[in-house]
Amino acid sequence: GGGVGPGRGGNTGGGDRNDGGGGPGGGGGGTDYKRTFSPKEVTRKATILTRPEPQYTEEARKNSVTGEVTIRAVLSSNGQITNITPLKRLPDGLTEKAIAAARQIRFTPAEKDGRPVSQYITLVYNFNIY
Predict the structure, then answer these.
(1) How many separate domains does the chain show?
(2) What pTM was computed for the model?
(3) What pLDDT was estimated at residue 31?
(4) Of the chain's two ends, which shows fewer C-beta atoms within 10 Å, N or C?
């Protein structure tokens, strides 16, 4: 961002008054590497190393529940998966099983300009009875 420094330095003694130059401008808006990026914004996307499948619950099997659970989460720059939020749920404990599976994900963090950064991810878990 541009910045205006303090101006106007007066002179003591006779002679004309001179205005001092403005101070240095503010630093440019740099990249905030602490924030969470979308996959489109990163230089290298996070790489999922292991992604365990969720377990079916007895309850869901008994009730023949099928469908998908969608989860949004953050693959953080320190290798932890955080901010796990279900966007689409299923009954009978399947949402919880999907969240538990998501917690087990192992990954290499995304990079932006060579620095590890946090990245949003959307995970879809399908529950089908075979």
Answers:
(1) 1
(2) 0.74
(3) 80
(4) C
